[in-house]
Write a structure and sequence with these properties.
The chain has two domains: about 325 residues, Alkaline Phosphatase, subunit A (3-Layer(aba) Sandwich), CATH 3.40.720; about 70 residues, Arylsulfatase, C-terminal domain (2-Layer Sandwich), CATH 3.30.1120.10. Helix 4 runs parallel beside helix 8 and helix 6 runs parallel beside helix 7. The termini are far apart. The protein is globular and about 60 Å long. The protein is an alpha/beta fold.
């Protein structure tokens, strides 16, 4: 007579124990990646060396590109708040009811109804950390990162120019830790260095009990630009070059920390800028030491920050995921910032919200299972809905007359094809009508309110 027949209950318990052990081993084999976002502020499409800058040296950003995929048609909001909204909520900004501004003296912020990226990852078991610029609400503590899904936060509540003489406010520009201002005034020169040290410490001290999500949102190279003494005067491209090279140094320190910890191969890293360079900065910014040459380059792209020509919303973007993304890939497929939200939640095993999001899961595209991006359109908002891109065609309406560009033969938006493609203009305008009606904004250049 067998042991199991003599002791049937013990046999069941033993089988259950082996089953749990098997599940545990399987879970370890398919462990979820750590997630890291490195987010520059106002870095232009043409600033990194791997995107064509002839003088600025960015060996660490270039290395990241060589070990992952470099995206050449990655688009986001054309200025700070909408791009961060897309990243953190996966939604175009008009869908999110901030109920006020989010800069100094602004009373708006993310509503509780939004399911933020850190909330989704924390819910999935991640430790969640943020360093740097937030800009999605601060006046009430409930708007701050540590009440929006992040376990920790050290950084600025909004851009580094929200102080006199550039912005007429009496609100102090100070560094926060958690939900309290801990330093005011402070020196901006070593800020990139301080953020980097904070990031390296978090990575070094990360435990083995759960994966982590780290969001490092640099203050630079947003005006006014600052750089540490250690890297001042080191580049061949002046002060702005020093600033970019310091951001590159920071990227290298973060990557080195992941390697030293032994977790680089199980970490998904995304690097990008929030929008293009502030080439046409307003007069308020060009004072107190700020110069026109203290901004970056959009490379061959037309336009700059705050505009919906590609120089504003198209940015450098790189994704590295060892063992998942083939090294050295370069792709001109259309990808949008909301896609990062959905892709990171998918990678982390999190749940999606029950409301509309504007992102796609990039995993099949990034891992080479499909050759094309899942994104086929992107809507450009500024003063209302200003433009739409559908596959190769982009329509802008801001001037009152349609501007139609073929983004395959003319990615620099120099040749208006509206006259010889009236059917395409009508098709894309209809797409804009539908989206404007959905989110309740005007179509720029028409004066028509879509309800």
């Amino acid at each position: 007579m067998t042991f199991s027949r003599l002791f049937p209950q013990f046999s069941l318990v033993l089988a259950g124990a082996f089953s749990l052990i098997f599940v545990s081993i399987a879970s370890c084999d398919e462990s979820r990646p750590n997630l890291v976002i490195l987010f520059a502020d106002d870095m232009g499409y043409g600033d990194p060396a791997c995107y064509g800058h002839p003088l600025i040296r960015t060996p660490n950003i270039d290395r990241l590109a060589g070990e992952g995929i470099r995206l050449t048609s990655f688009v986001t909001g054309s200025w700070c708040v909408p791009s961060r909204t897309q990243l953190i909520t996966g939604r175009y900004m008009p869908r999110v009811k901030f109920n006020g501004g989010t800069g100094a003296d602004g009373k708006g912020g993310l509503p509780d109804s939004e399911w933020t990226l850190p909330e989704a990852l924390k819910d999935a078991g991640y430790h969640t950390h943020m360093i740097g610029k937030w800009h999605l609400g601060y006046k009430e503590k409930r708007f701050l990162p540590v009440h929006q899904g992040f376990d920790t936060w050290f950084g600025l509540p909004y851009s580094n120019d929200y102080t006199k003489p550039w912005v007429q406010t009496d609100e102090p520009l100070g560094l926060f830790r958690g939900d309290e201002m801990v330093e005011h005034p402070f020196d901006q020169d070593p800020l990139t260095t301080r953020y980097t040290e904070e990031a390296v410490k978090l990575i070094t001290e990360a435990g083995d009990d759960a994966p982590f999500f780290l969001y490092l949102a640099y203050a630079m190279p947003h005006l006014p630009i600052h750089v540490s003494d250690a890297r001042r005067g080191k580049s061949k491209a002046g002060l702005y070059g020093d600033v970019i090279e310091e951001v590159d140094w920071s990227v290298g320190e973060v990557l080195a920390a992941l390697e030293k910890k032994g977790i680089a191969d199980n970490t998904l890293v995304f690097f990008a800028s929030d929008n293009g360079p502030w080439v046409e900065a307003p007069p308020r910014m060009l004072q107190a030491g700020n110069e026109k040459w203290h901004v970056g380059s959009a490379g061959p792209l037309r336009g700059s920050k705050g505009q919906t020509y590609e120089g504003g919303p198209r940015v450098p973007a790189i994704v590295r995921w060892p063992g998942k993304i083939e090294p050295g890939r370069v792709s001109g497929e259309l990808v949008g910032m909301p896609d990062i939200y959905r892709t990171f939640i998918t990678a982390g095993g999190g749940k999606l919200p029950d409301h509309v999001i504007d992102g796609n899961d990039l995993t099949p595209f990034l891992t080479g299972k499909t050759e094309t991006s899942p994104r086929h359109d992107y809507f450009y908002f500024r003063s209302g809905l200003e433009a739409v891109r559908v596959d190769r065609w982009k329509l802008r309406t801001t001037t009152g007359e349609p501007e139609l560009f073929d983004m395959v033969t003319d990615p620099y938006e120099r040749i208006n094809r509206a006259a010889d493609q009236p059917e395409k203009v009508a098709e894309l305008r209809a797409r804009m009508e539908t989206m404007a009606a959905e989110v309740g904004v005007k179509i720029a250049g028409t004066g028509k309110e879509k309800k």
